[in-house]
Amino acid sequence: MSTELLALRDKIDEVDKSILSLINKRLALVAEVGDVKSKHGIPIYDPKREAEMLAKRRQEAENIGVSSALIEDILRRLIRESYIHENDKGFKKVYTGQGSIVIVGGNGQMGRLFARLFTLSGYHVKTLGSKTMHQAAEVVADAAAVIVTVPINKTCEIINQLPQLPKDCILTDFTSIKVKPLEAMLKKHSGPVVGLHPMFGPDVPNLAKQVIVYCEGREPAKYEWLIKQMRIWGANLCAIDAKKHDKCMSFIQALRHFTSFSYGVNLQREQADLEQLIALSSPIYRLELMMVGRLFAQDPVLYADIIMASDDNIELIKRYYQCFGEMVELIEQRDKAKFIENFNNVTEWFGNYAQRFIKESQVLLKFANDNRE
Question: Which residues pair with 228 in a beta bridge?
């Protein structure tokens, strides 16, 4: 190796050390920002500030001849880390009254995640599980909110088993279907009721930019503090009617998980060589394979419950099966004209979203390619 190359690498190493020092300084400032936000109850995620900052840095990068995409990639990664550091010092407590937060199913992964967030916000958190349900009346006696986060097939049963709750106590659930749990909660409790659905798994490092759906039940003014608390954690709260929510979830969860499940079963039955598939895959196929593999790294009971949660899910999957059969028939007949017709119909239906998704997916494809061994 030439002396000239070694000298250049030494200079790069020195620049890298400077970058590390600056990153450390930035994270220290972020921690101070977190203190201020916690003190004043400001959400950790500020979309306007983030968008403005990224736009300025992109322009500044272009002005000095540096790729604006490179700078945005670096800054977005730093921002994700920043949200974690802002999280460390806790959050402002919104609720000013007395009472604890009771999490039914608090020993599960999602229960533990929210127990931690409520604790960081200064709430007294209690949990109820299958072994302690006989103590429920005592545990909920001073509850400001009772959150049911148990498997879908047990949610309504557990709601019905709850003792009488304090008049102004919020009763809510984290189930991925909303109509039936809401009906059960409204029947069980005469006070404030709201249906919640965190649209993420329990392995998220923080709630910045994460979506939590909420469906109105009863007395929204009395559960507004809970919605505000979740916004302070950084979550994006999305209000929707329970029936519309469940219809969307049939596509977002049930149908998507079913297609991944079916594809994985087929790969296994065909005895596909995963090592070869990974070695030969394009970034887009690698991503698709990652999403299928991710499913099979998780709890099969959970996904069985999600897919089989309602008759509507099953009917939707059956219609997909019929559509799949029609498309198989089309390629069996090698009807290229019909294929193109269907393709163009879907392209028109997607409209501008097709080009938007191409742009958004480029980031994911780069990430998939960067992680190739």
Answer: none
Q: What is the tally of structural domains in the chain?
A: 3
The torsion of the CA quartet 64, 70, 71, 73, rounded to 10 degrees, works out to 170
Spatial CB neighbours of 347, under 8 Å, sequence gap ≥ 6: 354
Question: pLDDT per residue over 155-186, tens digit each?
Answer: 999 999 999 999 999 999 999 999 999 999 99
Strand positions, DSSP E, 245-366:
none
Res 35: pLDDT: 82
Q: Which helix (H) or strand (E) holds 357?
A: helix 352-370
Q: DSSP 3-state helix, strand, coil percentages of the chain (rounded to 5)?
A: 65, 10, 25
Q: Is residue 360 part of a domain?
A: no
Strand residues in 5-141 grouped as ranges (E): 100-104, 125-128
Q: Are 180 and 152 in contact (CB under 8 A)?
A: no
Residue stretches of the chain with pLDDT short of 50: none
Quote the tokens at residue 169: 């106590």
Q: For 267, what's the count of Cα atoms within 13 Å in the CB-facing half-sphere? A: 17
Tokens coding 17: 């050390």
Strand-pair category, 193-198 with 100-104: unpaired
Q: Please say whether the beta carbons of 108 and 64 come within 8 A.
A: no
Q: What is the CATH number of the domain that holds 46?
A: 1.20.59.10
pTM: 0.84
Q: Tell me, yes or no, whether 107 and 79 share the same domain.
A: no
Distance, in Å, from the CA atom of 362 to the CA atom of 277, rounded to the nearest integer, reads 21
The answer as to whether 17 is a domain residue is yes
Q: Which two tokens stand for residue 207?
A: 């709630």
Residue 5 near residue 169 (C-beta atoms within 8 A)? no
Give me the pLDDT at residue 87, please: 61
Q: Which domain holds residue 281?
A: 245-334
Which pLDDT tens digit goes with each residue over 9-50?
999 999 999 999 999 999 888 888 888 888 888 888 888 999
What's the CA gap between 344 and 307, in Å, rounded?
30
Tell me the angle at which helices 300-307 and 256-270 cross, rounded to the nearest 10 degrees.
130
Give residues with Cβ within 8 angstroms of 286, minimum separation 6: 278, 368, 369, 372
